[in-house]
Amino acid sequence: MIGQHTVKSQRPRSVHDTKALQEQAESAKFMAQTGESGAEEWSQWSSCSVTCGQGSQVRTRTCVSPYGTHCSGPLRESRVCNNTAPCPVHGVWEEWSPWSLCSFTCGRGHRTRTRMCAPPQHGGRACDGPETQTKLCNIALCPVDGQWQEWSSWSDCSVTCANGTQQRTRQCSAAAHGGSECRGHWAESRECHNPDCTANGQWNPWGPWSGCSKSCDGGWQRRARVCQGAAVTGQQCDGTGEEVRKCSDQRCPAPYEICPEDYAVSMVWRRTPSGELAFNRCPPNATGTTSRRCSLDHRGMAFWEQPSYARCITNEFRYLQQSVQGHLAKGQRMLAGDGMSQVTKNLLDLTQRRNFYAGDLLSSVEILRNVTETFKRASYEPSSDDVQNFFQIISNLLEEETRRNGMMRKR
């Protein structure tokens, strides 16, 4: 077009093109001197865009155009720069290996797994984190065999003269988790000899029953008595000097019928057979005891039920209960009205927190009963705020009871 120059950025393709570009450069210098359009010299190449790996550099020039015409050729050029420094490569964790088998087939063991780190290169960072992980595992309780305890002392001789017998016994500790019972005899006897005498024998009183040989599944216990005074020429005592009877007839629970030791709600619950209760103290912010039952599910497996806090009363409810007793005594002297209003306000505040034990519900009912009794004795007519607070407390208690019943049904 007239009055305009076409900007071409192609590289010269031949000697003629190169020569043409040189002529254009000379022409640009001439135009710069004569006031015609032309381009300045190229700037220095910029620094490489990266400090490692492949980057780029640029350089620019300015078009001097006093009459509004355009310069021919590009105003910006770029080229590749390849920094000789290799870029750092950080270490990378590979996938975790599968968990190993438990280190023990019974009792408490552990499992482990590992992972490998692809090593860093060119000054990169090493992998951060553990190379090995460990977790506890408990496959089954280890069997515990019954163990014989020490023999008892030998009993007195069964007679006070001539030949008799002595006995001694030992007890077996209960086997657990499928272990075997003690093997061997639980009682031994031996002959004993006393000097001759001429009197007839007389039985001494029976001794106490020995401990049972087993704690469950049926055991034996014995007691003995001594024939006193029988001589070679005298008559022996009639009857026997030993009695044996069965004991511990109840069935031993199987391992799966015993709830294992458990740590729940910041308390340790000891091993407990199914059908029995375990007891603990209430949490530090309350007084009383909490219980937890070991029950059997439909498959006959023991499991822990949720702890019961029916006997737990928080310190705030306990203090409020004690203050009501003091106002109850004042009620006989017409002095309880203002105090009981304050008690009602405090009880409303406590029940609105929705954070109390089952024992607190029973305590609240007792406090409301005493408040009513105190108002009667004091012949004091509650204010409208007292009445409103009173019924709001009842509403809070009913709402909490409904919520707890709903939770029980879901279980």
Please provide a written account of the structure.
This protein has about 400 residues and is an alpha+beta fold. It has a domain at about 315-410: Serine Threonine Protein Phosphatase 5, Tetratricopeptide repeat. About 25% of the residues lie in helices and about 25% in strands. α2 (about 315-330) runs antiparallel to α3, α3 runs antiparallel to α4 and α3 (about 335-350) runs parallel beside α5. The longest helix is centred in the last third of the chain and has 27 residues, at about 385-410. It is found in: Cell membrane; Secreted. Keywords: Cell membrane, Disulfide bond, G-protein coupled receptor, Glycoprotein, Membrane, Phosphoprotein, Receptor, Repeat, Secreted, Signal, Transducer, Transmembrane, Transmembrane helix.
Q: What features would you highlight for this structure?
A:
three-stranded antiparallel β-sheet; 24% helix; disordered N terminus; Serine Threonine Protein Phosphatase 5, Tetratricopeptide repeat; 411 residues; alpha+beta
